[in-house]
Every structure is written in structure tokens, then in C-alpha cells.
Design brief:
Elements lengths: L3 E4 L2 E4 L4 E7 L8 E7 L6 E6 L6 E3 L7 E6 L4 E6 L8 E8 L15 E2 L3 E6 L1
Parallel strand pairs: 2-11
Antiparallel strand pairs: 1-3, 3-8, 4-5, 4-9, 5-6, 7-8, 9-10, 9-11
Length: about 130
């Protein structure tokens, strides 16, 4: 069992930055492809970004490319999401997700996710 705990959400003005963290339990963090998803008010949850087990490969949804950066520290069992140039449409609950499969360069289907965090709210004011 892997537990994921997100932190770092909050209220930020448009154009600002936030860094989300997802701390995980267990000694197997390095064996998981990690992803971030988000769910905006009144919308379905959507994939945002994935990072491979080693951290050498990433895949971003087009709407966040060039603004968001995912990274991971396997020694600290933590994955991060640096979000810059935030827009009002980035307002959402952001979820950390772990998948035991190998990384691939495409949006990760929710059905593949093995573990979910409870989410952290990011609100971008315009």
C-alpha cells in the first residue's frame, strides 16, 4: 500500500507561481511512474503530467507545457509540480497519482492509476 499526501496548494494571483509536493510512504517510490491530475470546478478530472521512475522522462498536456515542471526526488519519496505563469483556468484540485507501469509519452488513463492522493486545492485569482 502506498499513501500519497499532497501539499502546497493555495490562493495565488494570475501570473504567479506555486509548487506542489506529493510525499509518499513506503520504500517502493522509485518503482512508480508518478503523475499529476487536476479537477476544475464542475469538470471531470484530467491528466496534467507524468514523470518516469528515474525522472529522466516527462510528458505534459499541451495546456501546461512551458509553464509547469514536474520533478521527483526518489531519496525523499517526493514528487513536485512547479507551476508558473498561472492562469485562472488552472484553478482546480490537484491530485498526485502513482502507477506501477512503465512511463509512456501520452496522457495516463485514470483507470491505470494504482494510488491517489486526496488532492490539494489551487485557486488562481484573475
Amino acid at each position: 500500500q502506498v499513501q500519497l499526501v499532497e501539499s502546497g496548494g493555495g490562493l495565488v494571483q494570475a501570473g504567479g507561481s506555486l509548487t506542489l509536493s506529493c510525499a509518499t510512504s513506503g520504500r517502493t517510490f522509485g518503482s512508480y511512474t508518478m503523475s499529476w491530475f487536476r479537477q476544475a470546478p464542475g469538470k471531470e478530472r484530467e491528466f496534467v503530467v507524468s514523470i518516469s521512475r528515474s525522472g529522466s522522462s516527462t510528458y505534459y498536456v499541451d495546456s501546461v507545457k512551458g509553464r509547469f515542471t514536474i520533478s521527483r526526488d526518489n531519496a525523499k519519496n517526493t514528487v513536485y509540480l512547479q507551476m508558473n505563469s498561472l492562469k485562472s483556468e488552472d484553478t482546480a484540485v490537484y491530485y498526485c497519482a502513482a502507477w506501477g507501469g512503465s512511463f509512456y509519452s501520452a496522457s495516463l488513463p485514470e483507470l491505470k492509476v494504482d494510488y491517489w492522493g486526496k488532492g490539494t486545492l489551487v485557486t488562481v485569482s484573475s
